[in-house]
Amino acid sequence: MSESALDRTARALDLVPYLLEHQGISISELAMVFGVTEKQINEDLVLIHMCGLPGYTPLELIEMYYEDGYVTVSDPQSLNRPRKMTRNELTSILVALDLMKAGRAGEISEVIMNLESKLIKNLKVDNPYVVVSDLVANPMIADLEEAISKSRGLQITYLSAHRDAKTERRIFPSEIFTTNKEIYVNAWCESSQADRTFRVDRILECTLLSDADSVAIKKPLAQTTHHEHNEAGIKLFVSQSARSFIEENRAIVSDVRADENGFAVDLENIESEWLIRTILGYGGAIRVIEPEQLVGAIATRATEIYAKYL
């Protein structure tokens, strides 16, 4: 689907301030950040390079260099600051901040509140104060965030709801997220030798591990590299409309390659029943390329579901 001139203009206005803060970024990484192809980014850079202030002499044009595959901006003219956010954008950020604040306490909660206050000043509505979450602040979140920021592992005591038993695990956390009013953490689990998702309120105790112990439990390099694909892995094509699938499941995504229509995505081997339900939930916006067994399983499940409505 071709994009509108307004969409392209908005991206061009966003590109220059972003480049000023990320001098020397590669075109491939830039394309990934903005969710377009490298070809489109190159076309955008050519367009920006020809823009400037009235007069249109070399002194009024935007000055940038990108021929070697890396982008630097030396003279942005008047595009040195990001665009002002729209009301919808401000509201979305305030909702996200409210969710973040709900599960935290102490200094980080105060930082979030200060940021909310600054944003609310720009949101001209009668009552900008809303509560969108009833999450209870969890002291474990601070430890999890510290472990992620310092690339350190954790020793945790975890309560398994299925077995009603406590287990001792060493994990290497990578991401904290919220879904269905619960807070979860994605992490590499040493005992399972696989990525696992843990509910934060079921972590009874956690201790930050030393650098040496953290290195010992890190995910093996063979499973984290993007250059050597697992032949037994899962390959998908994800359309632009289903991009949220990639963002919400980064822990199991091993590689992403963008093109004009969407994204070629490689997944690590995961539980097939969950993946079948998830793909069907996107209503055709995600297509399985490999393996054939998964393609057949999804087709069979879709046929069974359809038959129930006849």
Protein topology:
Elements: H1 5-21, E1 25-26, H2 27-34, H3 38-49, E2 63-65, E3 70-75, H4 87-102, H5 107-121, H6 140-149, E4 154-160, E5 165-179, E6 182-189, E7 194-199, E8 203-208, H7 211-217, H8 221-224, E9 234-239, H9 243-248, E10 253-258, E11 262-267, H10 272-281, E12 286-290, H11 292-307
Antiparallel strand pairs: 1-3, 2-3, 4-5, 4-8, 5-6, 6-7, 9-11, 9-12, 10-11
Helix pairs in contact: 1-3, 2-3, 4-5, 10-11
Domain PafC HTH: 8-119
InterPro entries: CBASS_pafABC_assoc_protein, PafC-like, PafC_HTH, WCX_dom, WYL_dom
Domain WYL: 140-207
How would you characterize this protein structure?
This protein is α+β, with helices and mostly antiparallel strands and 310 residues long. The chain folds into 4 domains: 5-75, Arc Repressor Mutant, subunit A (Orthogonal Bundle), CATH 1.10.10; 87-121; 140-219, SH3 type barrels, CATH 2.30.30; 225-307, Alpha-Beta Plaits (2-Layer Sandwich). The protein is 39% helix and 25% strand. It is built from 11 helices and 12 strands. The chain has helices at residues 5-21, 27-34, 38-49, 87-102, 107-121, 140-149, 211-217, 221-224, 243-248, 272-281, 292-307, and strands at residues 25-26, 63-65, 70-75, 154-160, 165-179, 182-189, 194-199, 203-208, 234-239, 253-258, 262-267, 286-290. α1 (5-21) packs across α3, α2 (27-34) crosses α3 (38-49) and α10 packs across α11 (292-307). The two termini are 33 Å apart.
